[in-house]
Amino acid sequence: MQKNYPPAKGLYDPQYEHDSCGVGFVVDIKGRQSHKIVSNALTILKNLIHRGACGCEENTGDGVGILTQTPDKFFQRVCKELNINLPEFGHYGAGLVFLPNDPEQSQRCREILENIVMEEGQEVLGWRDVPTDDSSLGPTALSGEPTFKQIFIGRGKNVKDKASFERKLYVIRKLAEHAIWGSDLSEQDRFYVPSLSYRTCLYKGMLTGSQLEPMFPDLNDPDFESAMALVHQRFSTNTFPAWKLAHPFRYIAHNGEINTARGNANWMRAREALCESSLFGDDLKKLFPVVIEGGSDSATFDNVMEFLHMTGRPLPHAILMMIPEAWSGHDTMDAERKAFYEYHACLMEPWDGPASVAFLDGEVIGAVLDRNGLRPSRYYVTKDDMVVMASEVGVLDIPPENVLIKDRLHPGRIFMVDTKPQ
Question: Catalytic annotation on 275?
């Protein structure tokens, strides 16, 4: 997969691109789904618009997006209207798919994806045209705009539980990426699967914060409910924006830059031959390469974290493997915690750089800073059980009398809200 960068020339080389952005999330601590959470997240996004950027066209943004839990109530309704029979939550996966605009190439991409779904023992329940309104977009954004579809995949009889189904959807997506990006399709670069999951749902694009809602009217539907939502406003400091490079990615949204991404990706590729997994078995080789060539530092980080999480590690575990605190020479750190970092240092180099990384997997949501705390973020906990975190304060109007806790993220400490029933 290649970005829309110009070729290296003179002093310019696309391998040195970096980015810096604004990020925020809102979550109901008790896991109660509502449209209010989605609406609040979109308000946060609009209040972060100054953290994003646009080029010479004020209506072409560097990218925005929102990652939520799967809006099962909404999907059940709209799919019923299309005569797509969705099973209960956990027995189907939903994915946003970017497709070529050429009808023949789009159809070929769909056929490749459908064949892979069936080969992996799952069922294609149907496709949905995602309603869009691109009337507010500038010429540059329009020139790269893909066709938007949602695919619904039924859980096959060979899949024993939800976690196994999520892993199978991961395998399907990776196989489709490898097959289509390695094909002879002239518009293969427009094919991209922002999300394919039973737990999460993603809408994103080369937009500004105020364009996301008009572009995707689904987000304004009262039945579109979630207990958590992660939003991101991109500022491509030196990069060239693209639809697929908007955040969030499948698990993370990132404010800052990872300076060690290239070296870390190379080490990841070198270790693939040594990887084993009792969860994936023979499917493991279908996931390689884990890191997609040409991705941004954020996309590369997300690729690796997804792999670590899917192979059995809890999301916080994967995060701390990649962004450890400054443990070496830390005289007051307890021995058990130091042993955790020392052990994982043998498996994974730290992904260093000034960064605030927020993450979401549909059950937990949180954030972590780089070990030096160079990209600060702040959070509020309200008396009505809501948590708001963002790269700055003032992103959501909260009456002072409703604030229970007000604090900032600290380097070396992970901040997380777990909505799973205890």
Answer: no
